[in-house]
Prior knowledge:
Elements lengths: L12 H9 L4 H39 L12 E3 L5 E4 L17 H11 L11 H14 L9 H10 L6 H17 L2 H11 L9 H9 L8 H8 L14 H18 L4 H9 L10 E2 L3 H13 L5 H6 L3 E3 L4 H15 L6 E7 L6 E5 L23 H10 L8 E2 L3 E4 L7 E4 L10 E2 L1 H7 L2 H11 L1 H10 L21 H12 L3 E2 L7 E3 L5 E4 L5 E2 L3 H11 L21 E6 L3 E8 L2 E8 L14 H15 L8 H4 L1 E6 L15 E6 L18 H12 L3
Helix pairs in contact: 2-6, 3-9, 3-10, 5-6, 5-7, 9-10, 10-11, 14-21, 15-17, 15-18, 15-20
Family: In the C-terminal section; belongs to the transpeptidase family.
Keywords: Carboxypeptidase, Cell membrane, Cell shape, Cell wall biogenesis/degradation, Glycosyltransferase, Hydrolase, Membrane, Multifunctional enzyme, Peptidoglycan synthesis, Protease, Transferase, Transmembrane, Transmembrane helix
GO biological process, one term: cell wall organization
Amino acid sequence: MRKWKLHPLLLTPATLFRITVESPRAPRAREARRMLRVFHAKPLILIGSSLCSFLLCTLGYLKYAPLPKGIIMDPSRILASDGKGLADLVSAGVTRQVVTLADIPLSLQEATVAIEDRQFYAHHGVNLKGITRALLANVGAGHVVQGGSTITQQLAKNLFLTSDRTLSRKMRELLLAMQLEWHYTKSQILSDYLNVIYYGEGATGIGTASLSYFGKPVSHLTLAESAMLAGLPKGPSLYDPLTHPKAAKERQTTVLSAMVHAGFITTAAARAAERQPLTYIRRSAAQTDAPYFVDAATRDLKQQFHLTSDDLYRGGLMIHTPLDVTLAHHVDQIIKAKLRPFPGLQAAVVVMDPQNGDILAYSGGRDYRTSPYDRAQAMRQPGSTFKAMVYAAALDGGKTPATRYKSAPTAFSLSRASGSAYLVHNFADDYAYHNLDMQQAIARSDNVYAVHTAIDTGLLHVIQTARALGLPDDMKPYPSLALGVFPVSTLQMARAYAAFANGGLLVHPHFVSRVTDSQGHVLRRAPDDRLQVLRPSIAAQMTQMLTHVMKPGGTGYRVSNILTEPVAAKTGTTDTDAWMVGYTPRAVCAVWVGYDQMRPLSSLASHVAAPIFANVMEQTILKYPSGGFETTTATGIENVAIDPETGQRATSMCPDRDVLPFRAGTAPTVSCVAHPEKNAPVWERAWNAVRSLFGG
């Protein structure tokens, strides 16, 4: 065979291409490449066709399937202990107002669209550009700074979904938003949105919000008012103009700027609206009784039960409380009657079950309508009611009820270096001018005895005891501590005294017993968090000594005739505050009286707390009779008669005898040397005299 040779100059690219193409192997190579392309294309074609089928099916479903049933909840209801309704947590006593789009000013519609979803009229339920923009902004900031939800998505969430932050919930929101767009016009969607969105202060829907914040129908809203309300849904609590006026004003400015940017209003109109002063109204919640209690229970639901405003105002919850409506009504009537002669004088009353902390009755003032300020949780000086903490600390530190100090004007040294002293006086300069035991000092409310006891016990020990009983931890170790100069609240004092009534247990005040859903399923329950903070024997000693306040010579004796059961109590008075706190085994009652402006109390006004206490306590006793306090045997103490002159064990010859409660092994063993038994031998009298010299 003849062989052909090509000259090197003829080996051009074109020549090489022709040789390659015309090679016998070329057809097989082309076929292999074609098969390879077909092999890779088949999965892509299958995936693409599957996606198209899925999308077509989804769109068909969204178009023709019915929307799920909306789950707009009824307002949550607060119930009294007997199951009757106390209040519905709707805004400002205003039931939910549903309004048509024709009633809603165009300025409010435009403000809402401008700030919430500027592309509302252009998208089909989901704004992919908005979602992408929000995602990039959030990633760049490192936290959530923008939301990508459209008005339609927000409507879908409020109508059909919970507030769970899960991917599955978000996907359902997207699909439901598209389904809404298939079934409703933009006007219908905007109208429904404005009627179901939450505006804060318990207001669901723009109709309710308009009445709640401005006291007018929505159709009468101005541009400035519309811009203020349109800014609330993003953060109802954060931008609440009643509690955060500065933040609310800044939000209103943001809304007006968004309206200008969207072309809805001019810059001049925005500036004029921004300058317009806004007048808000405040209304009480829809309550039949105990408005102060309802406010306190609502705070407790947020702080202790960790429920949000959304949960409370839109959750359809049943909130069960321990409030006794009948007793609460009596409390309100007693306060009004006793304060009637004193214009401007205020009072706070707390009645608590000392065994579990249930709040049975609660009032924070004389008239909620004129002043909803809750004085039951205001901090005021407790005066002599604090002495109970001093004596509890003293008993814990080794003092006994027979410990004696002289009742007379006394100067206590504050500093040896400076020579400064703290001069203590009794109220109205009323002194016994002889030694008192602890029980006598409590009954008389002797200031000198209290300061002596606090210093000898240790001021830090007194503070530690007060903290253990639930009082504030900002007290300082000053001698005046014993006289109640550090502020506490009426609720805190009720809690502290409850420990004396229940054997030394610190209980948590319970405004709410349990929370259930509309079907009765328990969602939250008040915890049983009792803590032993005092020895039961010390609580029993305190109880027995505090009952002497209500006996002849005691500071509470003048109102004791009102009571039909024994009551342990303590009075307290400062220049600006009057108190009385006391209890039976089944109820503890704390009463404060004073002026909001810290005005000095007149002599008559300073005596109002005791009759309020006695009348409230008697109504409580009639409803919750206890039969009196436990015997000393059951509480681990023994009653021993003591001669008040010597502080020694009384003999049959002692002219006066005080029966004091002692823990086992702590009562005096030496018989009274001033009044020995008539037939006692000389050696016994001498021996007792020697023992008394050495404290035996």
